[in-house]
Amino acid sequence: MKKNRIDLTLIIIVFVGTISLLWSCGQKQETTADSNRADIIVYGGTSAAVIAAVEAKKSGKSVIVVSPDVHLGGLSSGGLGFTDTGDKSVIGGLAREFYHRVWQHYNTDVAWKWQPKEEYGNKGQGTPAMDGENRTMWIFEPHVAEKVFEDLVKEYDIRVDRDEWLNRDDGVKKVDGKIVSITTLSGETYTGKVFLDATYEGDLIASAGISYHVGREAADVYGEEWNGVQTGVLHHKHWFESDISPYIVPGDPSSGLLPKISDEHPGEKYSGDGKIQAYCFRMCMTDHEPNRVPFPKPEGYDSLQYELLGRVFDTGWDGWFNKFDAIPNHKTDTNNHGPFSSDNIGMNYEYPEASYERRKEIIKEHEQYQKGLLWFVANDSRVPDGIRTEMQKWGLAKDEFTDNDNWPHQIYVREARRMIGEFVMTENELLKKRPTPNSVGMGSYTMDSHNVQRYVKEDGFVQNEGDIGVSTNGPYAIAFGSLVPRKKECTNLLVPVCVSSTHIAFGSIRMEPVFMILGQSAAVAASMAIEQDIAVQEVKYEMLSKALTEKGQILR
Q1: Assigned domain for 74 exists
Q2: What is the DSSP string of 151-219?
Q3: Mean pLDDT by 10 residues, the chain (556 residues)
Q4: What was the pLDDT predicted at 127?
Q5: 476-479 and 324-327 as β-strands: parallel, antiparallel, unpaired?
Q6: Rounded CA gap, 169 and 399, in Å?
Q7: Rounded to two decimals, what is the model's pTM?
Q8: Angle in degrees, CA 416, 161, 354, rounded to 5
Q9: What is the dihedral of CA 34, 35, 40, 46, to 10 degrees?
Q10: CB of 328 within 8 A of CB of 141?
C-alpha cells in the first residue's frame, strides 16, 4: 500500500513537471516571437537601411534592422568616400544630415591625425568638399562614415541584429499578398507590419516572389537609346585606345586567350542580355609611411592575369594614378580607371542569383584579382620603372578596415537585381523626355555604367563594352511607384535600393546619397501605411509629399 502511494506521488510529480516544462517552453517561444516583432522590419545593412530605420523611429514606429552585414553603411563606409553626388542641392532630409555629421567630425582637431586640415584643401566635385556655408562634407574616410552610422543607431536606440542572413529558400512567409515574417539562417523569425528590402542584392524581393530583372534590357523594351549592348560606344577612358592582341602569344589565336577575355560574340547592338556591369572594391590607400601597409602578394598570384595591362603600359599609357582620389589624412578612395584596372570585368554575372556560398567565392576571387593587380603594378618588370617606383610608395591604410587586414568589407555591387514594380524608371524620365509621377526624391548623377564585358573584335584585337556615361542634364525626380511592388504581388514591401528601373536608369539612381534619400522616403510611406492600415501602394501621395517636404526632402 505504501509503495502504491509512492508510485502515485511520483506520477503526479512527473505529470506536473512535464506540464510546467511545456508551459515554460511555450512562454519562451511566445516571448522570443514578441521580441522579434516590430512595426517595420528593415532587411539589410546598407546606408539606406540605417537611414530608413532612423526615419522609422522619428515617425514613431518600432523597427528592427536585420542585417547580414556586421559593418553598417554598405559602400558609404566600405571605401566609397569620394561621394558621387551630382547636384548636391537636391540631397536633403536625413541624407544631408549624414553629410552634415561628417562635416561636424572634420571640424574637430582629433579628426586630422595624419594631415593638417588646411593642407587637405577644399576641393570637391562642383562644390567644396568641406562646405562651411552649407555645413556639409562629401569626402571622408571609411571609418568616419561607419562611426556616423553607428552614432545614429545608438542615438535613436535602433535594434540591429547583425550577421543575420535571410533564409532564401523558405524564409519568407506570405499570407494574402502580405509578408507576415522573415526567417534567417540562424532560425530567428522576425514579424512586422511592413518590410523594407534595403540590400544591394534584392534577396528579400526575390524570396518574396516579387518580379525583378537581372542584366540589360533590350533598348526597345522601354524605348531607350542607352540600354542593351553598346558595342562601338566609347565613353570615358575605360576602353582600349590602341590595337592590343588578346592572345597569350600576341597575334596567335592558337595560343589561347589571355585570362578574363570572353571568346563569345558580344551581342548585337541594343540587344538585351543577362550580364551586369563590373564590380570592384573601392580601396582606401595611403602613401603616408607611418600609416602604410605594403601591398601583400596574394596566395596563388599569377602574373599572366595582368599581362594585358602590361601590353597597355607598352603603348605608353600613363593614366594609372588618375583615380587615386584624395580623401582626408593622406588617403584615397581608389576607383577603376582605364582599359584594365580594378574592375573585374565579366567575373560577376552569377553573383545576383548565386547562393551565399557561391557569392563568397566570387567576392574572394575579386579580392584576389585586385590584390594581385596592386602587387603586379608595384613589383613586376613589365610595368614602366616610373609607375612601378611610384606605386611602391603606396599601400593599404593601416587604420582602416582593421578587422579585415585593411581590406574593404564591402564589394561594390554596382547592380544586381532590380525590381519590376508599379512604375519603372527609364532613361526617358531621367532625361525629362517624359514626366515622372509622384516624386519621393531626386537624383542627378550621370547615367553611368561600368564595362560589362571584354571581348575580341572582328579585327582580332581586344575591346571592352558596356561603359556608358550620359548626362541627365540636371536633376530628375524618382517616382514613388519605383519603390513598391505591383500590388498583386505584395502590399507591405518597399524597396529603396533595388528600385524598379532599367539598367541604364539605375546607372544614375544607384548612388549612395540617393539610396539614403529613398530609404527615408520608404520609411515615411511605410509609417503612413501602418497608421492607416492600408497597402503601401494606397498611400495618398498628397499626404506623403507633404510629410517628405516637411522632413527636408527635395522632391522637385
Answers
A1: yes
A2: HHHHHTT-EEEES--B-TTT-EEEETTEEEEEEBTTS-EEEEEEEEE--SS-HHHHHTT--EE-SBPPT
A3: 47 46 46 82 98 98 98 98 93 98 95 92 61 88 98 98 98 98 98 98 98 98 98 92 98 98 98 98 98 96 98 97 96 97 98 98 98 98 97 98 98 98 98 98 98 98 98 97 98 98 98 98 98 98 98 97
A4: 54
A5: unpaired
A6: 39
A7: 0.93
A8: 25
A9: -150
A10: yes
What pLDDT, on a 0 to 100 scale, did the predictor assign at position 119?
Answer: 87
332 in a domain, yes or no?
A: no
Q: Which helix (H) or strand (E) holds 255?
A: strand 252-257
SS3 238: coil
Rounded Cα–Cα distance for residues 112 and 330 (Å): 10
State the residue for C-alpha cell 503526479.
12
For the chain, the farthest-separated pair of C-alpha atoms sits apart, in whole angstroms, at 106
Q: How far apart are CA 556 and CA 554, in angstroms?
A: 6
Residue at 467 is within a domain: no
C-alpha distance from residue 330 to each of 28, 79, 102 (Å): 53, 14, 17
Q: How many other C-beta atoms lie within 10 A of the C-beta of residue 426?
A: 24
DSSP state of 278: P
H helix count then E strand count, the chain = 13, 24
Q: Are 329 and 266 in contact (CB under 8 A)?
A: no
* Residue whose C-alpha cell is 573584335: 457
Angle between helices 541-550 and 512-532 (to 10 degrees): 130
Residue 134 lies in a domain: yes
Neighbours of 501 (CB within 10 A): 29
Q: Are residues 451 and 466 in contact, defined by beta-carbon separation less than 8 angstroms?
A: yes
- How far apart CA 380 and CA 311 sit, in angstroms, is 13
Q: CA 353, CA 333: separation in Å to the nearest integer? A: 29
Residue 18, classified by CB atoms within 10 Å of its CB into exposed (0-12), middle (13-18) or buried (19+), is: exposed
Number of domains in the chain: 1
Question: Domain range spanning residue 493?
Answer: 34-215+416-444+479-550
Q: Are 496 and 518 in contact (CB under 8 A)?
A: yes
**pLDDT for 129:** 77
Give phi and psi for 187, each to the nearest 5: 100, 0
CATH number for 545: 3.50.50.60
Residue 105: how many CB atoms within 10 A of its CB?
19
Grid look-up 517636404 returns 549
Q: Which helix (H) or strand (E) holds 391?
A: helix 385-391
- Asked if 305 and 259 touch (Cβ cutoff 8 Å), the reply is yes
Cell of 514: 540617393
CA distances from 352 to 199, 230, 414 (A): 11, 22, 11
Cell of 469: 556615361
Query: What are residue 372's phi and psi, to 5 degrees?
Result: -65, -35
Which of 260, 346, 349, 362 has the alpha carbon at shortest distance from 309?
260
